[in-house]
């Protein structure tokens, strides 16, 4: 079958099935074969792998995944696209298409059933309206994933990969980097999609860590500290925590905990590394 990455073939399939891209589902179909090849290369897929694809659309990336992986599980929310996928994926015997909202799917059970012991990699050109909830769900549920390689909004990818002290660094950087090692694989301009999105995109690979990179007594409390620090980014961390309703600590207690770590009581959250947030979380338990 001719590749759907060629815009002529994508338009032909859309016309054949009377399909229009639906904005409410974040549908921007990939029409660039080089970008498709880059995604598959970045994902480091082998014939041993089960690939979970979220949002196969008309099957463009799915065809590449079927060629590279042992097995592909593709989860699509839009019922109009299910017959299109039956058509475009007909040549492949190693793909299962599930009609479902990925946010409602019991992923742990579904993946255990489909993987049959294979390593599991997630690969997707994600719908931008729901990127962060999908990724945080995949990370927080401790699913048995090796890596997650996704096309997302460039600005979000930069925030996920940001280092402390940079202007993109924030709660999302810390949360993602607690679970995974990010790698920015490619920048992708709007003209690689049909229709064109209004923002630039990027491919990011998140390699899941087998162990957290820091040890912390109460990870939940550390995550609340991330939120407190970046909800009021321009404030000192002690003030931000003192004002934050999700944590029981005063400004003075936070200042004391910071000083016990050799940090200034006037430091801002954006200057702290993941290790320092973990140490602060533990220090707050002891000073209070
Ligand atoms: N993979 C295709 C490609 O690269 O051309 C389509 C990508 S498009 C950006 C996002 C896809 O995700 C659409 O097919 C959309 O219908 C699907 N989608 C949106 N929300 C979803 C959800 N909650 N669960 C599963 N699929 C979803």
Layout of SSEs?
Layout: H1 7-16, E1 29-30, H2 33-43, E2 50-54, H3 60-68, E3 71-76, H4 82-88, E4 95-99, H5 107-115, E5 120-125, H6 131-140, E6 145-153, H7 154-161, H8 171-179, E7 180-188, E8 193-194, E9 201-208, H9 219-231, H10 237-243, H11 251-260, H12 274-287
Parallel strand pairs: 2-3, 2-5, 3-4, 5-6
Antiparallel strand pairs: 1-8, 6-9, 7-9
Helix pairs in contact: 8-9, 9-10, 9-12, 10-11, 11-12
This protein binds S-adenosylmethionine (SAM).
Instruction: Look up the CATH topology of the largest domain.
Output: Rossmann fold
Share of residues in strands:
15-25%
Total strand segments = 9
Bound molecules: S-adenosylmethionine
- Oligomeric form of this entry? single chain
Number of domains: 2
Helix content: 40-55%
Please, could you describe this protein's structure?
- The protein is α/β, with parallel strands linked by helices.
- It folds into two domains: 7-208, Rossmann fold (3-Layer(aba) Sandwich); 219-287, rRNA adenine dimethylase, C-terminal domain (Helicase, Ruva Protein, domain 3, Orthogonal Bundle), CATH 1.10.8.100.
- It contains twelve helices and nine strands.
- The chain has a seven-stranded mixed beta sheet, sandwiched between helices. Strands 1-8 form a two-stranded antiparallel ribbon.
- α6 (131-140) links the parallel β5 and β6.
- The protein starts with 6 loop residues before the first helix and ends with a helix.
- 41% of the residues are buried.
- Bound molecules: S-adenosylmethionine (SAM).
